[in-house]
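User: tokens in, sequence out, please.
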């Protein structure tokens, strides 16, 4: 795999949208409290030589500018662009890009805040760059902490890998002659490894004579799912994919999504957040 493909795969990995968590805003508020403590310890922006009776309150204001900026990005922007901030499609790429935008906004707000409340501060390009620098330094640590926390939560909910040796004995009992009618073709149900769809077409990935074969039909995924409703080994793992769990060799998925690997096929079958509970139930039963 090329470096470009590795990078693309990394950025497209599912991630947690922190504000979608039950206690998400509580964690954000905690960051707003931590920031003034870090500033008090490091005294940037020339604050170390600034004497003022309300100095500690002014430092608390930086936490407030962070919270205001966060609300603008993840509250207001999320309201106007709900599809972009949809939890089911949130990826590491989106998370990193949005976080970069947040840090720039926080740095700009800090710069304006300095010019109002810090007497020796002035509005200039140098002071703007200084504000962006300190925002990056002090904002990076809380961001790393929240990302690690999200990864920890995902890890604790990780579905264990599945290998062919663990396939249920019921697959051996399945009749190899049982078929499903799709258009004018009769497809042996036992041979279907997984199904992918695009608009009103479905592509069946079949395991025939120890070879991988693909067949495309004019058929909706919903309609085909109904035809296979009497066969519990078929589970929908994504809005565009149905997989035969008897062929799953490996799984790497959690509440944030992930992927499945099936026998003799190198392509990864995506698992979305929405369908993950059903996949987990089948894999762990």
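Assistant: Sequence out:
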């Amino acid at each position: 795999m090329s470096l470009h493909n590795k990078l693309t795969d990394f950025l497209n990995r599912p991630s947690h949208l922190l504000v979608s968590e039950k206690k998400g805003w509580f964690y954000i508020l905690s960051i707003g409290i931590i920031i003034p403590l870090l500033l008090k310890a490091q005294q940037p922006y020339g604050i170390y030589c600034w004497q003022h009776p309300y100095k500690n309150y002014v430092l608390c204001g930086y936490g407030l500018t962070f919270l205001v900026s966060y609300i603008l990005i993840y509250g207001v922007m999320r309201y106007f662009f709900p599809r972009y901030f949809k939890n089911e499609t949130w990826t590491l790429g989106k998370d990193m890009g949005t976080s970069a935008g947040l840090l720039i906004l926080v740095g700009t707000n800090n710069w304006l805040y300095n010019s109002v409340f810090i007497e020796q501060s002035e509005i200039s390009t140098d002071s703007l760059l200084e504000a962006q620098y300190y925002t990056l330094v002090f904002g990076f640590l809380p961001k790393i902490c929240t990302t690690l926390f999200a990864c920890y939560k995902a890890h604790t909910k990780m579905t264990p890998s599945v290998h062919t040796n663990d396939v249920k004995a019921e697959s051996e009992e399945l009749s190899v002659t049982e078929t499903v009618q799709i258009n004018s073709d009769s497809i042996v149900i036992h041979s279907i490894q997984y199904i992918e769809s695009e608009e009103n077409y479905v592509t069946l990935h079949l395991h025939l004579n120890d070879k991988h074969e693909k067949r495309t039909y004019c058929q909706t995924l919903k309609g085909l799912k109904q035809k296979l409703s009497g066969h519990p080994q078929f589970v929908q793992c994504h809005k565009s994919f149905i997989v035969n769990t008897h062929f799953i060799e490996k799984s790497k998925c959690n509440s944030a999504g992930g992927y499945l690997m099936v026998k003799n096929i190198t392509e990864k079958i995506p698992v979305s957040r929405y369908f993950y509970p059903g996949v987990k139930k089948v894999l762990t039963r």
